[in-house]
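Self-study notes.
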Amino acid sequence: MNNCFKLSLLIFFYLFVNDSQAQEIRWFGESPEMMQALEGRGWEDIGFNRLPDSAEKLVRPPVWNLSRQTAGLTLRFTTDSPEIQVSYTPTSSRLEMPHMPATGVSGVDLYVKDGSGKLLWVKGNYKFGEKVTYQFQLNNETGMQKEFHLFLPLYNGLSGLEIGVPADKNFEFSPKRIEKPLLVYGTSIAQGACASRPGMAWTNIVAREMNMPMINLAFSGNGRMEKEMIEYVSQIDPAIFILDCLPNLGPGAGFSSEEIKEKIRYAVITLRAKYPNTPILLTEHAGYSDGLVYEPRAEIYENLNVWLKESFGHLSGKGVTGIYTLTKEEVGLGTDDFVDDTHPTDLGMSKYASAYAKKLKEILE
């Protein structure tokens, strides 16, 4: 064996060993530390869910089933690694919808905090199947500990969540923030339809903009201001209650104008009785994409918004204070801001978020 061949073998062996060591991944799975770091839940010990077990027999089955989806749940952690891997099993085989991609329905989103405290999106290479995997890479030559926020799927649940980093890198789940969260009770739009990825749901954009935890109790097609759900909403003590349910109270739901107004009044009075000083924000219907070209569609959201204004006036007249409205005009959606007739694109989500953030800063700061 000549010396050149020996040298080649040594170089190959050296590169192979070092590459194998570099690829060794240390995984951090579901554990007390992970669950203690999980933000976006109104109750402890409910796993990757949005309602406690006691709700199963009290709320309608669609609400219960939707509460098993992870919209609004976020994990915070720190690491000095330039590579982060994520793996989990979706609880539903429906990974995508006709009007919403798998990255939004069943994917995750990773953000890293920069030196100024701003959260920046980190691109991930992903594979979807019975198991979903993501691989994220970013520059971290200095080996600094950086803070990350991992936003979980909007329209799917998950199990077996694991986060992996190279074995020689540090990793630690961050303590859950103790400040009061924002809380939204709403419809498919607030749950996240039809954001292209979890970070683009308006609720998650607002959480980043306000630098506050967000509890998402929005249930697609089922945000109907039912007494049972108001009871569960009232078990949480947030910085503000956001009630954005009008899109699910239209003609298809079968409610009269008086029933809708009574729902609004009941929700506000119930929350105000338990939390005398917590602001309550009532959101108008932001409109339909075809409302400008088909009058019957416009009449739906126009009537709903009139009834909300009348309810607001009634409550104010009864001496209820600390209630606010976010109007359709303030949200400001146009015909190009929708995927279909109802659900916003990422552009529409951005407009929602800007309107909400401006209003919330006016109320809370």
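Second protein, same conventions, sequence then structure:
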Amino acid sequence: MPKTASVSPRPALAIDLMTSLGELLRQWLPRQRWFAGKDRPVSELGLLAMTELFPGCLHLLVHTGHGGAPGPGGASAGDCYQLLLGVRKNLSPRLGRALIGRAERGPLAGLTIYDALHDPRSAQLLLERLRHPGTAGPLRFEGDPSVPVPAGLPPRLLETEQSNSSLVYGDEFILKVFRRIQPGVNPDLEVPVALAGQGCRRVPAPVAWFRTTHPQGATLGVLQPYLRDASDGWALALQALASGDDFTVQAHELGRAMAEVHLALAAAFPGSGHDDNGSTAAAMTERLNSAAHSVPALRPFVPGLQSAFGALATCDSGPPAQRVHGDLHLGQVLRAGREWFVIDFEGEPSRPLVERCAAQSPVRDIAGMLRSFDYAARQRRPWRPEWARRCREAFCGGYAALAGWDPRKKHGLLRAYETDRAVYEVLYEARHRPDWLPVPMAAIERLAVRGD
């Protein structure tokens, strides 16, 4: 196998390596949960950068194309993905789920290729790279020298990730490995670092990270403390529903925690100003029309939903635009002991990085959480709308107690952002979980017909 750590693979080497890997990756990539173009064949596949991270493990950045216009979920005609590929003569049965295939041609002919993140040995060697800052070809391993990371922490790969892959080390640290790579500093590194600088303890501060300088600078992964005894808000909400708990105390505390994070974000990224409600309304309307084109069930409600966006153009401008979470819901918050923590500041990975980093109204985050309460309430039969309503009230009350403004008094803004979120949910469920489509459609009917 190659013995080079190259910034950019020599044309001949790239061709040779893709001779071994090309067909295997074309078949394997669309089956991965984090791959954005699942419903379209990979028509283009190219090697952008290759580094032999350590013997038996290749770090690759590959370009994929689908030979057409942008596809569902924001998948563009071309994307960059990060792969860590293990190479062995024979694969242990315990790594069967990691198998990509056996190379038939090229420099890796006769060798077995697999996803190295499933391999404990590779995962431990990756942690060693992070423990000792340095370089490997275009890769840069960096970290906070004030936080020591012990050696020998046993790794385990989480199975619940969708847009990325995460490794937990000894229940002490968690490494998020970004799969779909965009140029620039990933918000899931930039924002927690900035919040740590503000003294905000609601977000675990990064301990180490790695990035690439080629073909463009980009963040590849972030290591943070792992909250071992924490439960995510979604699981806690479902437990509350099952036990008859109204969850209002927890929702109120969560509202205060989110206000604290928003205040710290505003201080860490100052000078954003107010949103242009007219432009925001136009963008929301465009997303609605696009979604209605794809989901026929949405079409009868379009006029009512458009009225929510039309009202946005003339309503109170609300709080200043600022950096926000961007994809807030109950699965993005953790409760450890009596404290709430906020995680996953990456935003919607399908959106361009510049859009995810742009200042937006904090009402967007609030609307996302309110929609999440509704989702939770509909997981049990009979549906309990009053449970969701009380949680919404408690969350907004907790938020208002610290933020200095009350989301419930920004009716036009909140309705517009909830509507926009529900439209996104309809499109997502129609494409990925059709059985769940009635959940956001119930909100669509409420927001369009009754306008509340």
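Instructor comment on the second fold: The chain has twelve helices and 17 strands.
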